[in-house]
């Protein structure tokens, strides 16, 4: 068995559910063709819409900004295939439900050029003005190995890691819960930094080791921006291999939502060849401005042009704080405890700065050292992470000059794209003094600050200590059997609802929960022999903290 994102909070095999020959379930025939509103055409919205269409419903998509949401592959002007991945860009192989859709669409992936991987070729780590060149972790000074070993030991000591990982790989729900549920109680209210400093392995080392860990971390690099987060967030990343074995989608990840929009799977009720695009008349509707409960019980969706439509069910996939800032949402649609969770959910900031260059010049050998002119670079300077995307010899290639989070992202927030590039080149100039990166740049830079866009107001959730209860309320909201009638029929999905924010797999899994929720809300049921997430939830759902 291989490692997949199975649990740990709710160990349910979404990939098996999707692949089962019996399908996901069925609806009473009189429900076929009913319209369901889906707010947001990102990964969660499109996946929910696609599966609801397969069940014989008519999903109507509303999108306030760009189709694909945080799966945004921006093509450099004047080219057709030179791409900057502005949102999700590296997809761990353990994202089994997400890869189900990539496979369905025939999208191919290659290893992502992460630090110290073969795909990167070489890596430069520059901390406190000291620069190390490495092809693998073994080329780094012993301190780096000590840091990596200390974190591995801390995971073992604080989270019974090897046994828990084994249980996830074996897809053994009982064993996972035996180990994970006590960890929830132990670590929900403690930070990642606390976990590191409290561990025996790091206590034996000095501050410098903790500092280097913050800058270089594990897997893809610097994790210090997550130091204030609840340790549970980080444990899930480690446990599910989310920072390991990551893949880049050839041609851009936005092909996934676009592909599902035009794909024609076999569907109940609908004729062969039916697509989401066709059911939506070729285009999504615009921004949802209001959500209300009709006196007759249906949910009224008003778009920003004043058009009102009534639905028996609505799936909301936008970031949860937009239910307060962007959509006038009737308060009684949610319980006050859920409102607390939706509004307290904390989103992190992220900024990326890309340039297109004439060719992968960084591979040229340095005349003095013989090493490549530039390498994938991790640094404590402003840029933090610099990634190199080789599109082939003598072809325009791409440099992500900077990918940064939190304070490092805020440092560039008010600045223009050109200023961001200047700042990044200044930082990289100190690491590579003889390399004239600017002379290779073509066209205009492409930059993003997700927190500056009113349709997001942040990049992705980053749960703080004590937020487990909020996650629990939002994630479990698709189980509506015991809710008062005025709260039923509206379903939450997406990155902010999931247990693994910042990873598209979580967005997809929550979309599938919402699909089950809508199906049963409309009187449908799971296919015989293929129980869905809501059928299993009562016995295996996430542990509740009192
Ligand atoms: C910088 C960054 C890096 C990331 N890196 C990775 C990675 O490497 N690997 C990985 O697996 N994941 C990564 N992710 C996470 C991944 O991109 C997300 O989990 C996923 O794309 C979220 O999909 P979603 O459908 O939940 O939300 P979204 O994609 O945000 O979709 C919600 C949609 O709702 C729309 N909307 C907002 N308000 C309204 C309204 N009023 N009416 C109608 N529509 C509205 C928005 O415009 C948006 O399109 C990254 C995300 C970011 C931002």
Task: Write out the strand line-up for the largest beta sheet, numbering strands in chain order.
Answer: 9-8-18-19-20-17-21
- Summarize the amount of helix as a percent range: 25-40%
| Number of separate strands | 24
List the ions, cofactors and other small molecules found in this model. flavin-adenine dinucleotide
In the CATH scheme, the class of the domain at 14-69 and 251-345 and 465-540 would be Alpha Beta
Write out key terms for the chains shown.
FAD/NAD(P)-binding domain; binds flavin-adenine dinucleotide; 546 residues; alpha+beta; 7-stranded mixed β-sheet; Guanine Nucleotide Dissociation Inhibitor, domain 1
Question: Would you kindly provide a written description of the structure presented here, covering whatever features stand out?
Answer:
- The chain is α+β, with helices and mostly antiparallel strands.
- Among the domains are: 14-69 and 251-345 and 465-540, FAD/NAD(P)-binding domain; 141-248, Guanine Nucleotide Dissociation Inhibitor, domain 1.
- 33% of the residues lie in helices and 18% in strands.
- The chain is built from 19 helices and 24 strands.
- It has a 7-stranded mixed β-sheet, sandwiched between helices.
- The site of flavin-adenine dinucleotide has 38 residues, from helix 2 and helix 18.
